[in-house]
NADP-dependent 3-hydroxy acid dehydrogenase YdfG (Sphingomonas oleivorans), 265 residues
Amino acid sequence: MPTTSPIAVVTGASSGIGAVYADRLAARGYDLLLVARRIERLRSLADTLSEAHGIQAGIIEADLTEEKSLVHIEELLGSDERIALLVNNAGNGKLSSTGDMSDADTASTIALNVIAPTRLTRAVLPAFLKRDAGAIINIASVMAFHSLPITTLYSATKSYVLALSRGLQGEVSGTGVRVQVVLPAGTATEFYDHAGIPLSAFDPAAVMTTENLVDAALAGFDQGEDVTLPSVHNTELWADYEQARAALFGATQVGIPAPRYLVNS
Ligand SMILES: NC(=O)C1=CN([C@@H]2O[C@H](COP(=O)(O)OP(=O)(O)OC[C@H]3O[C@@H](n4cnc5c(N)ncnc54)[C@H](OP(=O)(O)O)[C@@H]3O)[C@@H](O)[C@H]2O)C=CC1
Ligand SMILES: CC(=O)[C@H](N)C(=O)O
């Protein structure tokens, strides 16, 4: 039976963080559009959530690194007026140096972590702005502000997601549209099955459950946060970081080289 409930589109809903977002959003009364490649997993989740929460859940089999899939979802995002929330969650990352990473993995990580959320955001944003309502949740990572020799490319893609989100927050300021960026630290998901380093290699004390991660991220969303760091207890750390970043940027706006670089004058 057709409903008038708002729809949440969740990419990467077939496992991990995306699957828990799907569950929590269904519990909040959203109908769902679940996107990923593993269609059987999506079907099973959609059936479970429809039954448990009395919502409607559609599934889209899509490889978000492929043009055809992106175009299909872009068309939906731009045309279905019930779509009220986009969760750009699908992402991957091989943990290895850039030199050791294959060309295929390099291209896939950039396509999935950078191109896909950009394209889907650009597809949905005009409709949200027109309606003066809607929200985008972008799943970045704490690696957005930390690069290790084995996370170079992954960190670069997540820095992009953070910068994209921060810029978008400025663009939608004063409208009814929201953009939240979530920066998880290590979370117990299948991410590590594909990353080349197993989850068991990490300190269990530093790894969050997927449920805790998503519940905290949604609590941050409910509190109106633009940037949510679920594992950071001391909120002053982010405030200090932002203050230092803004001060550094301000200090660049002087138009003359710093004295230490005036070596020949
Ligand atoms: N786990 C962690 O420690 C952290 C994770 N994150 C981020 O969280 C997000 C979710 O990852 P997480 O839940 O941990 O990992 P999972 O591997 O459990 O989930 C990744 C999801 O992305 C989907 N996906 C992967 N490749 C594609 C593709 N080409 N096209 C469409 N969908 C795809 C997968 O579905 P399918 O294979 O069926 O296509 C799956 O649903 C990612 O952006 C990740 O970078 C951030 C910080 C920490
Ligand atoms: C690469 C990692 O360490 C992890 N997935 C994260 O994003 O923090």
The helical segments are 16-27, 39-53, 67-79, 103-131, 152-172, 191-195, 210-222, 236-251. The pocket of 2-amino-3-ketobutyric acid (ligand 2) is lined by residues 93, 95, 141-143, 151, 154, 185-186, 191 (CB under 6 Å). The longest helix spans residues 103-131. Residues 8 and 145 are 28 Å apart (CA to CA).
